[in-house]
Task: structure prediction
Amino acid sequence: MVEVNLWSGLRSLTGGKQVVEVEASTVGEVLSGLVKAYPQLKGPIEAGVSVAVDGRIIASGLTEPVSPGSEVYLMQRLKGG
Amino acid sequence: MALDDRKSDFTFIGTRPDRPDGLDKVTGRAKFGADAVAPGMLFGAIVRSPHAHARIVKIDTSKAEAMKGVKAVVTRADFATGLTGEFWNVQENVMAGDTALYDGHAVAAVAANSALDARDAAKLIEIEYEVLPHVTDVDKAMEADAPVIRDGTADGSVPEGMHPNVVRYHESGHGDVAAGFAAADLVIEDSFKTEATHQGYIEPHACLASLGADGKGELWCTTQGHWYAQKHCAALLGIETSQLRVTASEIGGGFGGKTTVFIEPVALALSRKANRPVKMVMSRSEVLRATGPTSSTSMDVKIGMTKDGTITAAEGVFRLQGGAFPGAPMEFTAMCAFAPYALENVRQVGYDVIANRPKQAAYRAPGSPMAAFAVESVIDLLCQQLDLDPVEVRLKNASKKGTKASYGPRFDDIGLVECLEAARDHPHYSAQLEQGQGRGISCGFWFNHGGETSVSLALSEDGTVQVSVGTPDIGGSRASMALMASETLGIPYENIRVTIADTATLGYNDVSHGSRVTYASGLATIKAAQAAIAEMCKRAAAKWGIPEDAVKWEDGCAVPSGPNAGDFEPLAMADITADMGATGGPISGHFEATPEGAGVSFGVHIVDAQVDPETGKTSIPRYTVIQDAGKAIHPAYVEGQFQGGAAQGIGWALNEEYVYGEDGRLQNAVFLDYRIPVASDLPMIDTVIVEVPNPGHPYGVRGVGETGIVPPLAAIANAVSRAAGVRMFELPMSPPRILAALKADG
Result:
């Protein structure tokens, strides 16, 4: 299982939890696992998110690997000017 | 990529060769958006709403259509239907549907034989409006009695009970901020406001579009992202993406404002209807009224500090108005606000608020400069009241490798401490101030970005190289790509020509934004060059009759490698490419990927300000920018990015603002009234390039294009506040606002 840290604004969609566990070995599985466990997260995730794995911010790569010991943060999608 | 794999000993990188587009640009040979022509070309003009908020009751185009020389008139009815999400929002902004949502909102368009005819015909289009209540101020848009602009726009993140104009919500942080504030010796909480500013690119939006009845089209336009333009224009016109070929012109500035489309889909719609090419060029007034400025903001920031300068807690509420559409970058404002500092207790909240203004667009590190203004002002106040040195306090609390960022994850290698140490040790910081002057500093943070990237690199028979990239050159990227290819291949910079390919000749590329181009297209260029090197080594091995792995690439030549490789004269690139047709065919390299190691960026600015108490006018006698570039590929361009960020920041801090009248109309839609800095407003801006390599790039590159605009608002506000002896809480710090603050202070 991978521990995923959510931004606190999502707690209302996860029953108050800011850290949740999902079965995942890739970023894509993290996202699909989150939606499966907490269907209300589908909206924010489809709106666009980035995932930080051990400090590296992954903007869109769903195949990037994740391991059980990884520090994983869900973030809102990054873009720029 | 492991740090040990990174190259650090460079031959070409770090030099300052001539820019490849220099001659074209000084001789007028470079072709910008408005420079394209086509046989039979028509000219387009747009009819714009004179109301901030109005229902469109009726559009009568008959008189315009009857005018001699008019070939087509379009309204929303000429665009695709059934769009959703961001496609729908872009379409709604490009051409109003049932309701005009801001002053300047496009309502109809006309194409005619001449630009004059088109403008005259536009005046003949009769539109009946039902004027609706409007709101343009971010705080007023959130009040209970504010007019509802687009009911039902809010997403599920917005807490119950908020006004329908609040359409998105963000909250993040960690620790216990209440306990942190209780542990502080001093807690300061203040409120700040900033007005919307425009990116201020000198080249207005311009395009030449051709779209036939067969659904095949060509579009030439000034843009930061022609694949984005292709995708969105195709969606808005209801055609297949690949049938529209988009070519990016030279670009006269973008800064984020050309990462979307405005006139391009309209020109295509007119072309389709007239069956002729259509050229459109915005006036400056149209640029200011109807293209993306920044958000305006209203912010509350609270920070606690102990007497020794340790920050115990920080909290910020950031309300961003982004026009009549969702998307104000409030989450970036929130996440960037406290990122420079290692905080155990931090909380940040963001609100995306819609109002009757044009749809905001990105502008260099979107959302971050405003946050820095509020946060770094409060830190400066704490330093003043606790009698602490502003740089030492920032050093004491600075984020470093391993710090848990205010937005969550831990930082990898970053260069904030190195930037602050460079600031502390810079002669500017210890220089004597003159009477009436104040000195301010500020940190700044931006994430940077990778994004989808494709690069192709083709070798010519004479051993020279053509590199095709898909990221429009908005900041010198052709030079930096050539330098990275040169370094990798071991051949002179002058032997490489870099071209911005069109959408039909290269794989997909994300927009030139997020400070991503030198990082991502550079990484792809290096990988493409390495692929070409591998093929050249293979050709040399075949020629020598030795295994491929017995050949290595060294200083632009294939050479035998290892004790059993044999003794052969090195084969230079030109030796290999001269007969490549006969040794296996043309040699090229390509790379397609979404690099995900952009590496975040920090900067520190020092600025001196002089305030005239009689007139309220501020001058900037000295300015120093210090920023981590990871590795400066072409230092002159890096310095230019630093200076450009500071120059734009000076304008944002001191004079630039959108001024709306009671009627909700923009009052200052020309450069005479919208006051951007000119050369005489600026000092020589000194620069210091700090280089803490980014682990995610083969040569250590971090993007540098955006971070430079994050610290100026705060650094200048701190300098002005110290010079004037009164704290400034609202931007711009224009002469009337400074005089009012001085008067209120007594």
